[in-house]
Structures are given as C-alpha cells and as structure tokens.
Write a structure and sequence with these properties.
It is built from five helices and seven strands. It has 144 residues and is of the alpha/beta class.
Amino acid sequence: MSFASGGLRIVSEMLVTVLIVDTDHGFRWLLKRLLETTLTVAAVVETGNSEEGIRLAKELRPTIVLLDIAMLHRDGLEAIRRIKTQQPETRVIVLTRDHEGAYRRLAVQSGADAVLPKEILTQKLLYGIRSSVLKNQLAEASLN
C-alpha cells in the first residue's frame, strides 16, 4: 500500500534487503530471525567476514548493512568505506560492543549512517532500520 500526494510517495510496508556482516554466527542467526519476524524483508543475507560482506554488498545492493566493526580479514572501518563508496545509497548501521565511543566516532567518520550497541537487539535496532529506510524513500521521492 502506498500514499501519493504532490509527488511524494510513502510506502507503508517497507520491503528491505538486509546484509548482516558479523563474525559471531550465533549473533547473526539471532539477528536474522528477529528481522524476519518483525520486518517485511525481501531478504536477509549473512556472512562472517568483511571481504565477503563487501562483495555481497556490491552484488546485492542491500537497503541496509548491519556491520560488526570488529571484523576479521579486513577491519570494519575499511569495510564501511568500501561499501559506502560502491553504493552510497545503502545505509550502514554499525553494531559494536565498544562502550567507550572511540569506534563510534571512527565509524561515523568512515561513513556509517548509525552506530548502535549490540546489546539493543530489539526496539532501537528496528527503529534505526525503519528510520534509514524512510530516509531513502523520502530522498527518492524528492528526486521524482
């Protein structure tokens, strides 16, 4: 269902593609199940390393990338930069256990759209995804 008025189209059911990039298989599984049961998703794809995440982001062009900043094979900051360079329209939400904030500042400087603590798996994460999708929809509507 959509609402169109004065060239603005807002989609009430958000159909998103999410790429999860995290080394913790259990965390990825939990996050994937949470997303599949609470959002209208086209696909939730997951990988355990940043090189594969960068490749999948380029191939799939997901709406959202949920990225653990502490990655193996290539650090998460470099992954953010490469994903945002390849497709700036993709929203990158960094998930971190860093409570000090040092990684948070670096993640935003590298191009992350949001940085959230891993401990907030429910309300704030879903709100962050919905907010990012709505920003994309409003930006697209303004171009039409």
